[in-house]
Amino acid sequence: MNCCCQLPQHQQQRRYHHRNLSTLTKKSTKLFVAAAASSILLSSSGLVTTAFSSNASRVVSTSSTAHCFALSYCQSTKQTPFTTAATIFPRKQLQSSVQMSTSSQTEGTSNKVEKNHPLQNLYQNLDPSWINQLSTETPTNYEKSLQRQSSATSYRGRTSSSSSDSEDAADNRKMRPIYNGHYVVVKPTPLKKPRLVIHSPSMAATLGFTEEDVLSEPFVQFFSGDVSTALNPLGTTTKKEEHLTWATPYALSIMGTRYTSNCPYGTGDGYGDGRAISIGEVISPQKERYEMQLKGAGPTPFCRGADGRAVLRSSIREFLASEAMHELGIRTTRALSLVVSEKGGDTSNRPWYSDRNKRGPLPTLDDPRLASYSLEQRKQIISQLSVQQKNDPDVMISEPCAITTRVSPSFVRIGHFDLFARRAMAGLADDDDVPYDTTTDAWKELEELMWHAAFRDYKESAYDPFVEKKDAKGASLAILKGAMVNISNLVADWVRVGFAQGNFNADNCLVAGRTMDYGPFGFMDEYHPLFAKWTGSGEHFGFLNQPSAGYANFVVLAESLLPLIVADAGEDWMKEEQRVKKEILTEAQEVFQEEIDRVFRSKLGFDQHEESGSDLWSELEPMMRESRTDWILFWRRLTMVMKEYPSLDSTAYGDMLDLLMGNDEVVKGSSPFYEPLSENYRSKFLDWITKWRKALKEAESSSDDPMSTSSDDTTVPSNWRTLPSNATPYERMKISNPKYVLREWMLVEAYGRASKGDENMVFELLDLVSDPYGERDGGDDDDDNYEEKYFKRAPDEALTAGGTAFMS
Hints:
The chain is built from 26 helices and 17 strands. It is of the alpha+beta class. Strands 5, 10, 11, 12, 13, 14 and 15 form a seven-stranded antiparallel sheet that branches. Strands 1-2 form a two-stranded antiparallel sheet. The longest helix is centred in the last third of the chain and has 31 residues, at 573-603. The relative contact order is 0.12.
């Protein structure tokens, strides 16, 4: 195998000797504790913050007919998939029976593990709990699946199998329905001519890899999908158990509504990891468990006819966004490495946007079609059109394939619970006094999944206290408590930093409340409550509707665990089910609402529990929306106001407004407003600043814990939620309002350059996001002057260009 793990010399120097990148290995992992979020409704009179109702579909909307439910994000090119006979056996039988002789490459070699092999530590610490604790298909369902696949193939007119079909069958790369089991053994499809583009030094160190390990050929082989070749030297000369890699099935629910139409069979049995393959779980030197997953590793039984590949463009976005989210202090899956298939290797065709594909011109305020509306209504209509006008791609381009290795303590999705709960609940008990038949295989698979999630994601709170007693009810309730906090924490933090996930279905929501699936995401430039990059996001996944989407996903999790909670409730099980559901969801509504309130209080400099901060946000929101305000610049410049005017006795409100507004004539793009403020809005913002400062002073004077009189501006706390109650407003605002995020125009420029062989900007952006709250202003300790390059509004063209302003 030709493994291109070396970069051109000038890129090696940029990559491994860059002054700032070397500091990444020293940065400690930021842990984020969880808490809560809210729902917002857009009425004819404007946005009004409201408490959650039990109706999970309550979202920001301007139309009662806004029910554009987005289906899953998939590739466009087609290739067929299949299975290996090894997957038909139950787990224990599979593990004892699946063995392989060493290849001819290893015959005659020593039967000892190769010393100093780059993957030696990883190999010795592999511990696949998903395989060990969960189940695969039964032989009966395996045969049923093959019959369904065979009839489908015959129906399409394919009556013979090619050698490539046979290979796909042996490695389980062919589409087919999966009727039971938590995983299917799937071999990744290795990239041809793989080359390591970039890796995360901090994530590599966490897993126990040295820089020398990362630059080795086995590392690149393993994380480009050639798993067996990479691990061969670590085997023996006789026989060894095969290293299993796997993909998982799950279900689709959008805003709490369960779907099967996304499945090619119309049953929900063909949906799951379409291009993500788990290649192992490892116990790190810190005794922490991490699962490694290749995104873009080729087709699986769940690929739904697509090629299972990712391309360099999307892989750069995924890699950088994963690490950026981590450095922002928000729970997320991480990125370990990005490997590309070099010229002459693998490519995929993808629909994308030409330079001509732009958002159409918006109507002006004096457009005759808007004449019957008031001035405020016209502004609202134009603002609405600015986020709704999205085009589909208009060209087909060939792009090099790439694989991003994403890493997480767990990839257990709510979609996993959704699928196995549907199957378990289909088996109703014959006895009216018993809710479900708990003797079925489907029930056992749901219970196994629950214990596995408890073990992986909530071990101290949901596994250890209950597993010996086999208390499934207690463990399920503990999982719900943890997920409630973590998911509400997550979506509120997305709002805090201006992030829209874009496709927040239940299958894209991890039970542990971590960000994952960086596909149609986007960081917001111009503020709008319904902002989203993806053309399929609809209003339900719009920016300020993400708390509602998170709550809807939590409802799916609660409904999926309720059978385990009430299984032993006896003849009153229906009343008990209603009671428990009402109790859990009522608490969740309060937690989600409180969390979003806490976010805006902190962004404004208030203590998290100071209610006046929420009122000020309600007044500020329509002003930001109507004045075309940049989300990141506005909040960071407001933070600068607090830094320059720390005394709350100051009444220089006009000077504060001038500082907030910036000056494009002095520094282009420094103003947070995409249009010059009118006198009317200048007056409104001046009044608001006055109220804000007076409210902060009143909060300080009424606090039982006197505010700190000094602030260390050289460091930033790792977590805004853990700041002491006597922290200064500036300290709260600096850690709540990042200065640097991955704006789409930055990513477009980075992957555009990379496609032409210049990957320097990819490394620069990784360095930039390593310190999102720092100033990076070109001072004595920073010669990159990132402030001039990246602390500015998006260019006007970035707000209209296809592939930048919006994407499919």
